[in-house]
Amino acid sequence: MSRREQQEALSRTALGVFRLNGQFLALSxxxxxxxxxxxxxWQVLGAVLPEPLPVAGIARVMGITRQSVQRIADLxxxxxxxAYEPNPAHRRAKLLTPTAAGRAAIDRIDPGHAExxxxxxxxxxxxxxxxxxxxxxxRLSTALDAVEGGLSLP
Length: 154
Prior knowledge:
The protein has 154 residues and is mainly α. The chain has six helices and three strands. It has helices at 3-32, 39-48, 55-62, 66-78, 100-124, 127-148, and strands spanning 53-54, 82-85, 95-98. The longest helix has 30 residues, at 3-32. The protein is globular and about 55 Å long. It comes from Streptomyces narbonensis. InterPro entries: HTH_MarR-typ (IPR000835), MarR/SlyA-like (IPR039422), WH-like_DNA-bd_sf (IPR036388), WH_DNA-bd_sf (IPR036390). This is Helix-turn-helix domain-containing protein. Residues 7-142 form the HTH marR-type domain.
């Protein structure tokens, strides 16, 4: 592949990912709305469903700024959908955890989420094709993490 073709592939990839991001955000808003959530609230709550995390940990997992997560976390706490709890590893970095109301809101999203997953599985040509799509996207993310530090731009 020539240098020009590599640049074209990068541009097409970036534009495709930007489009996917917009599509996922729009669908997420539709799925989250009946549960009284926004896509951003759903993302943050979803990040702490398996285990409580500090705001910085949520930001790392989501690939967004700590300040953005902090604003959403504070709103979730104010709305009673999440709570802060002490962090034994760090006194000042409290852990965010979903409340029963937060978990119930996420549960209300599940039917639409399951329907979307089934529709995408069918549209992509089955479970193996969907799994391959996930592997490719995860590989791209890992590769971007690896090359980011070696980029020699100001």
